[in-house]
Specification:
heterodimer; A: alpha/beta; Glutaconate Coenzyme A-transferase; 6-stranded mixed beta sheet; two-stranded antiparallel sheet; 7 helices; 26% helix; B: alpha/beta; 3-stranded antiparallel beta sheet; 22% strand; globular
């Protein structure tokens, strides 16, 4: 079985959860929910996951607690949560827009709204999943700060895209390349990013055979490949 | 005890131009759509709407009822973007007081508890504050920490849809989450509950799910299917086919007229 780009994205999202311990993980999109289950099956057995409808479901598929939205709001304020959100725009400090493109009083493109991003980013680890890394997403300046970046005190952990993995573990808290998925070059990243970006060109690690088996078991129809 | 049974049109007749109304549910889940459709049929306009937004917001936008929306998002869940809301925003037709989801809850809670504000970290340093200059921060008298002072979201009228209610206005949810429907009723001067069935005694679920007390409600309407096309489990799931038609019709005036005639006219 050959390892696909979607598999590298999945394992990178799972690795972003290393060291989480006993927290709620709220993964949006297709790949992050698979990745969170991979993490729970391997390095992070204590993470809590919900069905998106108020039920926390354990790894045996059993309901283990009740988490309606108001409890999630309480829980996120405690800091014991890691969320994966999907930005419309993101800048070099991880400021994130989920609201609208253009002026806020009359946007050119209205999107979904800031949701819980302001409260998430000030309270707990927030990672971003970008299935299509382009210079329209990685912008010089976001039109609306829904999720606050590292320069505003935001707890942005990592950004995982179809090209690589990015973090903010630099002295000035700017985004930098943590790894590139196999076959991706720095030129490709620079062409698709509207601001200067540097970092480590090491490849994203290969998933182990066991991990690939877990991924295939969680996503037998390869839905992950359709998200890229 | 008072019999609070009423009709959709009589309930909605309590809503007047310029009022602030809160709508329960979440996204495309257990929305009081029968009440919202009655509102669309009424002459009321210039509403301020507080909602975890779904097709309730989209439909009211399409009928030109909203002056200002107070919300953290508008979505149809299985269809992430709400096309009627987007059209209204992109035309500059409505004002949008954009909040963090938790701030909205705190606003309802402050109103319900008659407090001047509720403190929260959510919103700090984000454009939710920059775009809402009326929102202020406050410094803790204990340790000097600066937090957002979320003001009350006081509602003139709340509209919610529950699974069961009695004629006195006690109401029950049987699905996984009450969302914030109890808080909407508590934050409002008048609260109207539509429900799948009015019962004499609550024989389903545990008594813990009787979350809305008659103390907070003013009218009850029995409207089987009153949340459709949104979900109202366990009574029914979302009607995805109908929601698809609703969303697609946004792009085509003829299709929209046909859909609105079918869905809203009666």
């Amino acid at each position: 079985m050959s390892t696909s780009r979607a598999d590298h994205c999945t394992i990178a999202c799972a690795d972003a959860l290393r060291g989480s311990g006993e927290i709620l993980v709220s993964p949006f999109g297709v790949i992050p929910p698979i990745a969170a289950r991979v993490a729970r099956a391997t390095t992070e057995p204590d993470i809590v996951l919900t069905d998106g409808e108020a039920r926390a479901i354990n790894s045996d598929g059993e309901v283990e607690s009740w988490l309606p939205f108001r409890y999630i709001f309480d829980l996120l304020s405690s800091g014991r949560r890691h969320v994966f959100m999907m930005p419309v725009q993101i800048d070099r400090f991880g400021n994130m827009n989920l609201s609208a493109i253009g002026p806020h009083h009359k946007p050119k493109v209205q999107v979904i709204g800031s949701r819980g991003a302001p409260g998430n980013t000030i309270n707990h680890a927030t990672s971003y999943w970008v299935p299509r890394h382009t210079s329209r997403t990685f912008v010089e300046k976001v039109d609306f700060v829904s999720g606050i970046g590292t320069d505003r005190g935001g707890l942005v952990h990592q950004v995982i895209t179809n090209l690589g993995v990015f973090d903010f573990d630099s002295p000035d808290k700017r985004i930098r390349v943590r790894s590139l998925h196999p076959g991706v070059t720095m030129d490709e990243v620079r062409e698709n990013t509207a601001f200067d970006i540097e970092g480590d060109e090491t490849p994203t690690r290969e998933p182990t055979p066991d991990e690939l088996e877990i991924i295939a078991g969680l996503d037998p129809e390869n839905r992950r490949a359709t998200e890229l | 005890m008072t019999d609070k049974r009423t009709t959709l049109d009589d309930a909605v007749a309590e809503i007047r131009n310029g009022m602030t109304i809160g709508i329960g549910g979440w996204g495309s889940r257990r929305k009081p759509m029968a009440l919202v459709r009655a509102l669309c049929r009424s002459p009321v306009k210039d509403l301020t709407v507080v909602s975890y937004g779904g097709p309730d917001v989209g439909l009211l936008c399409a009928f030109g009822k909203i002056r200002k929306l107070v919300s953290g998002f508008v979505t149809l869940d299985s269809i992430p973007l709400e096309p009627h809301f987007r059209a209204a925003r992109q035309a500059g037709a409505i004002e949008f007081e954009e909040l963090d989801e938790g701030m909205l809850q705190w606003g309802l809670y402050a109103a319900a508890n008659r407090l001047p504000f509720m403190p929260t970290k959510a919103g700090l340093h984000s454009d939710v504050l920059a775009s809402n200059p009326h929102l202020k921060t406050v410094t803790s008298p204990y340790d000097g920490e600066e937090v957002v002072a979320m003001p009350p979201l006081h509602l003139d009228v709340a509209l919610v849809h529950m699974n069961r209610a009695d004629k006195h206005g006690n109401a029950q949810y049987l699905g996984p989450d009450i969302y914030f429907d109890d808080l909407y009723c508590m934050a409002a001067d008048k609260a109207f509950v539509s429900c799948e069935r009015i019962v004499d005694t609550f024989d389903e679920g545990s008594f813990h799910t009787l979350r809305i007390s008659r103390i907070y409600t003013d009218g009850v309407v029995e409207t089987p299917g009153g949340a459709r096309f949104t979900s109202c489990v366990p009574d029914y799931v979302r009607d995805e086919e109908m929601q698809n038609r609703y969303a697609k019709a946004a792009a085509d005036p003829d299709a929209w007229k046909a859909f609105a005639d079918e869905y809203v006219a009666s």
